[in-house]
Amino acid sequence: MAVSEAQLKKMLGKYKYRDLSVREILNVTSLYRDLKPIMDSYVFNDGSSRELLSLSGTIPVPYKGNTYNIPICLWLLDTYPFNPPICFVKPTSTMTIKTGKHVDANGKIYLPYLHEWKHPPSDLLGLIQILIVVFGEEPPVFSRSTAPAPYPMYPATGPPNSLLGVSLLPPLVSDSLPMEEVGDPTEEESAIQTPIDMSPTEQEEPPSLQESPPTVMPDVSTETLIARLETLSKLHRHEYRSLQLCINGLLQEQRRQHLHTLSLINSSFSSLGDTIREGFQQLQSVPCAPNSPPANSSQQPPQVPAHPPHTDPGTESDDPGGFGVP
C-alpha cells in the first residue's frame, strides 16, 4: 500500500526540510514501487541513535540479459536534502555480500555521487539510477551455496559391490560444490540473487557434433538504451567532476604554499631593511669630533721657508753683501 503525502508529512514532522523530502520520496516511490518509507531508529558509529526515515525495498538491476531485484536501504537524515542519505545493501538470508569498490563488508555503499552531494542537482532519483548502473557492472550480492549431504558409508558385509566392473555404491560428493545459478527473477521471491560465474569442471564433456544455436540477444527498447546511456553519462560526469575538484584542490594548495613562501621572503626583506635603517640612524646620531692635532704629538709642523726680498732684476744693488744698506 502506497504511503500518501499526508502520512509522509506526519512521519517527517521533525525534519527541517519536510516539504522537499516529501516531494522527492513521492517521485521515487511512484517509479520504484517496491521501495517503502519506514520510520526506524538508526544507530550511528558513536553509539547514539535517532529516529529517521528509510526507503527499504528492491531496485531492478539488469545483469547479463536478465533483471534482478537488489535489496537496498536508504536512510534520510533530518537535514535531508542538504545532506546525502546513508545507503546500505540489505541481503536476505539466501544472499551474501560481495565486497568491492563501492560496497564494504557491512553492506555500506560508497559512491562519488554521495561524496559530492549538493542540492538541488543531487536527488534520490539520480542516486537510484546510478546505483542501478553500478550494480549492473559489479553485483553487490551473490547467492549462497547449498550443498547436499553426502551418502553415509556402511561396512561391506556381502560379496564385492561390483558387477562387470560397474560399482554399485553411489559416488561420493565432494566437499566444495559450485554455487548454483540464481533462478528466474519473476519467481515468488521478492529479492532474486545475482548469478554466479561458474568455473569449468575438471572432467570435460565430449564435443557435440551439432553446432550450438546462435545467441539470441534480449529485446531492449530504444528508450531503455537511451535511459542507460544517460545514466552512464551522468555517472562519468560525476567522476570527472570529482577528479577535477581533486586537481583544483592540489593546485590551490600549491598556490597557497607559494604565497606563504613569498610572504616569508617579503617579511625577511622588510626586517632586513628595518635593521639597515636603524643602523643608519644610529650612525647619524653619533656626534663628530673636531679635527685638532693630538696633544702629545712629537712631530712639529713643517716650517714654511721665508721668501727673499723682491729685487728688480734690471737694477744693480749697491749693497754687494746683500745686507740692504742704501
Per CATH, what is the topology of one domain? Ubiquitin Conjugating Enzyme
CATH class of one domain: Alpha Beta
- SSE pattern: HHEEEEEHHEEEH
Q: Would you identify the CATH H-level superfamily of one domain?
A: Ubiquitin Conjugating Enzyme
CATH architecture of one domain: Roll
What is the averaged pLDDT score? 74
Strand coverage percent: 5-15%
Organism: Xenopus laevis (African clawed frog)
GO cellular component, one term: ESCRT I complex
GO molecular function, one term: ubiquitin binding
Protein name: Tsg101-prov protein
Structure description:
The chain is α+β, with helices and mostly antiparallel strands. Among the domains are: 5-142, Ubiquitin Conjugating Enzyme (Roll), CATH 3.10.110.10; 223-276. The protein is built from five helices and eight strands, in the order ααβββββααβββα. The chain has helices at 5-11, 18-31, 112-115, 124-137, 222-285, and strands at 36-43, 49-63, 66-76, 86-89, 95-97, 141-143, 162-163, 166-167. The strands form three sheets. The protein has a four-stranded antiparallel β-sheet. β1 and β2 form a beta hairpin. α4 packs across α5 (222-285). Residues 2-145 form the UEV domain. Residues 286-301 have a biased composition (Low complexity). This is Tsg101-prov protein. InterPro entries: ESCRT-I_UEV_domain, UBQ-conjugating_enzyme/RWD, UEV_N. GO terms for molecular function: ubiquitin binding.
